[in-house]
Design goal:
The chain is built from four helices and seven strands; from the N terminus they run βαααββββαββ. By secondary structure, it is α+β, with helices and mostly antiparallel strands. It has one domain (about 5-155).
């Protein structure tokens, strides 16, 4: 554990049969209620922001915003690479002891090697707990491909 895993559904099912805190193929989506909330959030964002990425750069990274000529908010991304590790706003339906976070980077493409991303996750988790186990993966069907992020699942021992 404490590594990247393959998000293939058969692989997730196999891992979940050993480690119940890793999602299986039936658990990799939020509940219907959370999906509806996400849809409402994104519809509201479309009313106020130029693009979905502007909304996310604002709420996740706290980047400065201003109105464009169409009256929509746009954000200003920084040249400096920033990471944010936070709970998933629309978590999957996991066992009660599992935690679902997202590690976000303010760029579109993978910023580092998978090894460095793994180190970033370890660094962030060590701020939350002393003893933990985790796995992570890139979602093969990202709902927000404009901003690079990975799904992180962990337990605190």
């Amino acid at each position: 554990m404490n590594c990247q895993i393959n998000p293939d559904l058969k692989n997730l099912d196999k891992l979940n049969s050993i480690y119940d805190w890793i999602p299986n193929s039936e658990q990799i989506r939020p509940s219907d209620e959370l999906k509806a909330n996400k849809e409402i959030d994104y519809q509201n964002a479309a009313s106020f922001y130029q693009y979905t990425k502007d909304y996310l750069y604002d709420i996740i990274f706290n980047f400065p915003t201003e109105f464009n000529s169409e009256g929509k908010l746009i954000t200003f991304n920084f040249d400096k690479l920033i990471k944010v590790f936070r709970p998933n706003d629309y978590p999957y339906q996991l066992c009660s002891r599992s935690n679902h976070y997202v590690l976000w980077y303010n760029c579109q493409n993978k910023p580092y090697s998978y090894h460095q991303i793994n180190l970033d996750i370890q660094e962030e988790l060590s701020k939350l707990a002393y003893n933990f186990q985790y796995v992570w993966y890139e979602n093969p069907s990202m709902s927000v491909p404009e901003i690079y992020h990975v799904q992180v699942f962990f337990i605190i021992k």
